[in-house]
Amino acid sequence: MIQFDTFARYYDADYGAIADDVPFYRELARRSGGRVLEAMCGSGRLLLPLAEAGMRVAGIDISGAMLARARARLQAAEMLERVELMEGDICTTAPQGPFGLAIVAINSFMHLERVADQLAALGQLHAALRPGGLLALDLFNPDVRALANENGALALDKLLTLADGTRVQKFVAQQPNLAAQINHVTFMYDELDAQGHVTRTVLPFPMRWLYRYELEHLLARAGFALEAVYGSYDLEEYDNASELLLVVARKIER
Questions:
Q1: CA distance to 31, 78, 145, per residue, from 81 (Å)
Q2: What are the beta bridge partners of residue 200?
Q3: What distance, in Å, lies between the first and last C-alpha atoms of the chain?
Q4: Which of 21, 48, 68, 96 has an alpha carbon 20 to 30 Å from 236's alpha carbon atom?
Q5: How far apart are CA 90 and CA 135, in angstroms?
Q6: What number of other Cβ atoms are within 10 A of residue 159's Cβ?
Q7: What is the 8-class DSSP label of residue 238?
Q8: Exposed (0-12), middle (13-18) or buried (19+): which is 229, by Cβ within 10 Å?
Q9: Residue range 180-195, pLDDT digits in tens
Q10: pTM of the complete model beyond 0.70
Q11: Residue 5 is inside which H or E element, if any?
Q12: Beta pairing class for 167-177 and 155-161
């Protein structure tokens, strides 16, 4: 499992500027009504714009360090009173509902390797939603041909600058297991000081990809009815070329 507390130091510089999905979730929250729950909420990248849009929001994450960053972000924007933050594992607990919408954003659901964990998380989300509430899952659309070309080679991914001015080189290696549908990913963050010395942080973690009908089956087992499948945040039709497997499902009573 990825060391999320260690990852927190780099997360905002690496992913904090992503905003393509914000309009999608904002409109979905308005449509669904009620409070919004984000599972695996990280440092609050989505929590803040949803709170600023007038939503009552709750976020749960397993990492205390990530939640500390979320709390600071919300406090700086004077939005902390609109957001409930909870440290915990979504497989075993969730903030008290009912919620109109539950979100698991940008591939976070893929950190759950086992079917038992996937169903446990979906069960917690199902219990937290009001009858008829919506669930949105944002996943990577697997391209087996592209995955088969990955062989564990380390490649420079991007250059980052942390909030304290530290320069960082991020390297990524991927080693997929096609039979297990697990991509063994390694992030390496190299911090460079003024003298050119390097401090390396290595973060290995598995990502379990899912296919469309596999996901639909999981949702049905957990008490959800599929509402829509999109290939982008602009609601484009899902197809082979889609980068995303973006699913919206509705809670049904079991």
A1: 23, 8, 47
A2: 190
A3: 32
A4: 48
A5: 14
A6: 11
A7: P
A8: middle
A9: 999 999 999 999 988 8
A10: yes
A11: helix 4-15
A12: antiparallel
Q: For the chain, give the mean pLDDT.
A: 95
pLDDT of 1 strictly over 60: no
Here the tokens at position 188 are 């390496």
Domain spans in the chain, listed from the N-terminal domain onward: 4-142+210-251, 144-208
As a whole number of angstroms, the distance between CA 98 and CA 249 comes to 16
How many of the other CB atoms lie within 10 Å of CB of 52?
Answer: 15
- The whole-number average pLDDT for the span 59-74 is 97
Residue positions counted in the chain:
254
What values do phi and psi take at 78, rounded to 5? 60, 40
The Cα–Cα gap between 237 and 144 comes to: 20
Retrieve residue 85's tokens.
């933050």
- The Cα–Cα gap between 222 and 21 comes to 25
Nearest-angstrom CA–CA distance, 24 and 26 = 6
Gap between the Cα atoms of 186 and 154, Å rounded: 9
Q: Quick one: pLDDT band at residue 2, thresholds 50, 70, 90?
A: low
Helix residue ranges per DSSP H, 17-174 = 22-32, 47-52, 64-76, 115-128, 144-148
For the stretch 97-126, what's the b/e string if a residue is b when 16 or more beta carbons lie within 10 angstroms of its beta carbon?
bebbbbbbbbbbbbbbbeeebbbbbbbbbb
What topology is assigned to 4-142+210-251 in CATH? Rossmann fold (3.40.50)
